[in-house]
Design goal:
The chain has 401 residues and is of the alpha+beta class. The protein has helices at residues 5-16, 72-82, 139-143, 147-163, 183-194, 208-221, 255-266, 279-286, 295-299, 301-322, 355-368, 373-377, 395-400, and strands at residues 2-3, 21-27, 39-47, 50-58, 63-68, 88-93, 96-102, 108-114, 172-177, 199-205, 227-231, 245-249, 270-274, 325-331, 342-348. The longest helix is centred in the C-terminal third of the chain and has 22 residues, at 301-322. The relative contact order is 0.08.
Length: 401
């Protein structure tokens, strides 16, 4: 049953400011209106300065995150978001879940339910999770130590551990493209350094204020001689010398393609990319009919968007294979915590693509009549001929094996 929108939003406001809040997401738009951001996510975090409400928004090109103190600052920030014409709100607390959808007539359809997940995540006596980076590590006092952040850090480090050789000691040069507030950048450095790896890490972000903030944090942690930051775009930032490992975690839309293209041009030995939104291919699918007999895949908007995600990442993995990489698409974090939970993990082998692999990629592109951004950013692969018994493998290929 429809409810007055103002009353429903008042209820949402109370939940957002409730200390029991665990997560909230606002997205979509109301009929004839457009919010100033595409999406907003709120969650409580524990910082050195005390509890804060973390608000992350995205305008489609880059994310923006801020932490506001309880009281008037949080009240004002929540009121500002509630004034945006979002079409949907999803709010979770320790006790309940509320889903709000604004109808075409401007009323609210509200679904309320008791919380279905356990009240407490790992941390009790009955279940102790072993983290690759100790949750009590001092780094979490600087980057934030919420349970959700520790889960994401641990999932990322496990993916990194599965990618790098067990006996790696370095020197290892790492570049994080689109690093944002760099909490995964710092976690990666901490974990690698604890393993005894001789590592240098450079974070790249387009915002100068992020560069300054991250540089100051590196100085406070005493890592400024090993962890540095530059301001610039993923495509054009000056990074010298070329890295061994390229990270691109939650870069929006074609920014992931720019990161993958730089990794290929650098001939990076390893690549970890966690794509965020996939608007480019989704927009192309909206403008042309699907090939028979696949019309049902794209007729409904939500199915078209999800299919675009799958198609985009499948094409990215296929292109990496054509450029001498072994690429896998794996789960990053549990889908309970984020729907953007895929990770492209690639290792350079230098292996020439087969005729069948080239044909497989081209047939998929031609069948759906799409133009992958990554393909436009990379030259047509012209790999070296397969080595003969008298031709030694390149050094980097030997190292990768």
């Amino acid at each position: 049953m429809a409810e007055p929108l103002d009353a429903a939003l008042t209820e949402v406001r109370a939940l957002l400011l409730d200390p029991a809040l665990t997560r909230a997401v606002a997205a979509g738009r109301r009929r004839g209106q457009r919010p100033s951001v595409l999406r907003a996510e709120l969650r409580p975090v524990a910082l050195k300065a005390g509890p804060r409400l973390q608000i992350s928004t995205s305008d489609g090109s880059r994310p923006y995150t801020r932490n506001v103190a309880p009281g008037p600052e949080a009240d004002a920030a929540v009121d500002e978001l509630l004034a945006e014409p979002f079409g949907n709100w999803h709010v979770e607390t320790a006790d309940a879940t509320l889903q709000l959808r604004v109808t075409k007539s401007g009323e609210a359809q509200v679904h309320r339910a008791a919380a279905t997940r356990p009240a407490a995540e790992p941390g009790g006596h009955d279940r102790v999770k072993e983290y690759l980076l100790d949750p009590g590590d001092p780094i979490f006092a600087e980057i934030g130590g919420s349970a959700a952040k520790r889960r994401q850090v641990d999932a990322f480090l496990r993916a990194l551990a599965a990618t790098l050789p067990d006996d790696l000691t370095g020197p290892l040069r790492v570049v994080d493209l689109g690093c944002g507030n760099a909490y995964l950048t710092f976690a990666a450095y901490r974990w690698l350094a604890q393993r005894g790896v001789d590592v240098e890490l450079v974070g790249v972000d387009v915002r100068e204020d992020q560069r300054r903030r991250n540089t100051e944090l590196a100085e406070r942690l005493g890592w400024a001689d090993r962890v540095s930051f530059v301001a610039g775009t993923i495509a054009d930032a000056v990074v010298e010398p070329a890295p061994d490992l390229v990270l691109a975690l939650h870069a929006c839309d074609t920014a992931t393609d720019e990161a993958l293209a730089r990794a290929v041009r650098w001939r990076a030995r390893w690549v970890l990319a966690a794509p965020c939104c996939h608007h480019d291919v989704a927009a192309q699918l909206r403008t042309r009919p699907a090939p028979a007999p696949y019309e049902l895949l794209t007729r409904q908007g939500i199915l078209r968007e999800r299919f675009a995600d799958v198609l985009t990442d499948a094409l990215r993995a296929g292109l990496l294979r054509l450029h001498g990489y072994r690429a896998e698409v794996v789960e990053f974090v549990d889908s309970r915590h984020t729907p953007r939970n895929l990770l492209i993990r690639a290792r350079r082998t230098g292996t020439a693509p087969t005729v069948a692999q080239r044909a497989e990629y081209r047939e998929l592109v031609d069948r759906w009549a799409v133009s992958p951004r990554l393909e436009a950013l990379l030259p047509t692969p012209t790999p070296d001929p397969a080595p003969t018994p008298d031709t030694p493998l390149p050094d980097d290929v030997v190292a990768a094996h």
